[in-house]
């Protein structure tokens, strides 16, 4: 699954410079690493303390041209919410400039040795990823969320704080599971679906759907 921690001395570059970037920067520092650059498409974005900020693809390319020794610099996309496609695109862009996308796991998360975690995925504090679960690339399992045994997350999935994916669930690419939502065992959620905060999913969710409530019902 790749090295989930952040061995001391590792250098990181983030795409994104707002709230989620602050969370990841704190985690990187906790693990002894350092954030050396951030990138953002928003020209009004504010830099992290002491970290230079570059705007857009042109900013990334200018930074790369001025940083020839990029070997081993880790790339993380610090963009949450229902923006899985953007996370995947930006991660690929950073990798194209010679950065390395590897998973990052908080030391207070519980991750079973039999899990597989894809490139650039993030497992935050008090999250649980149980036996034989599989996370795709550029996923976020946010604070206090659970991905139970043998469940599978596609690429670009975001499991928001406190959400629970029960055992043997299949989550498609770019899905957002809102804060505190529950997906019951052995169900399937199609690509690009959105599960509202606090929803309880009791049946399969078609691709592209938005479901809310308890039991969850489709509103799109």
Characterization of the model:
This protein has 3 helices and 23 strands. The model has no long low-confidence stretch (mean pLDDT 95). The strands form 4 sheets. The chain has an 8-stranded mixed sheet with strand order 5-8-11-14-17-20-22-23, with no helix packed on it. Strands 6-9-12-15-18-21 form a 6-stranded parallel sheet, with no helix packed on it. Strands 7-10-13-16-19 form a 5-stranded parallel sheet, with no helix packed on it. The protein has helices at residues 19-30, 56-66, 84-96, and strands at 11-15, 34-40, 53-55, 74-77, 104-105, 110-111, 116-117, 122-123, 128-129, 134-135, 140-141, 146-147, 152-153, 158-159, 164-165, 170-171, 176-177, 182-183, 188-189, 194-195, 200-201, 210-212, 217-218. The N and C termini lie far apart (35 Å). The radius of gyration is 17 Å and the shape is globular. The chain is of the alpha/beta class and 220 residues long. It has a domain at 11-96: Rossmann fold (3-Layer(aba) Sandwich), CATH 3.40.50.20.
């Amino acid at each position: 699954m790749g090295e989930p921690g952040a061995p001391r001395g590792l250098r990181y570059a983030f795409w994104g410079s707002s709230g989620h970037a602050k969370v990841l920067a704190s985690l990187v520092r906790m693990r002894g690493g350092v954030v050396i650059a951030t990138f953002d498409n928003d020209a009004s974005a504010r830099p992290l303390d002491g970290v230079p900020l570059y705007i857009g693809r042109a900013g990334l390319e200018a930074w790369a041209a001025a940083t020839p020794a990029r070997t081993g610099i880790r790339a993380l996309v610090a963009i949450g919410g229902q923006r899985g496609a953007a996370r995947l695109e930006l991660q690929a862009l950073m990798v194209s400039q010679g950065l390395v996308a590897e998973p990052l796991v908080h030391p207070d998360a519980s991750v079973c040795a039999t899990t597989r975690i894809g490139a650039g995925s993030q497992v935050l504090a008090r999250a649980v990823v149980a036996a034989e679960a599989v996370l795709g690339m550029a996923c976020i399992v946010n604070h206090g969320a659970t991905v139970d045994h043998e469940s599978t997350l596609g690429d670009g999935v975001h499991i928001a704080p406190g959400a629970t994916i029960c055992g043997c669930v299949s989550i498609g690419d770019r899905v957002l599971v809102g804060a505190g939502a529950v997906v019951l065992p052995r169900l399937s959620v199609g690509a690009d679906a959105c599960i509202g905060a606090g929803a309880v999913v009791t049946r399969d969710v078609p691709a592209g759907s938005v479901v809310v409530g308890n039991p969850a019902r489709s509103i799109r």
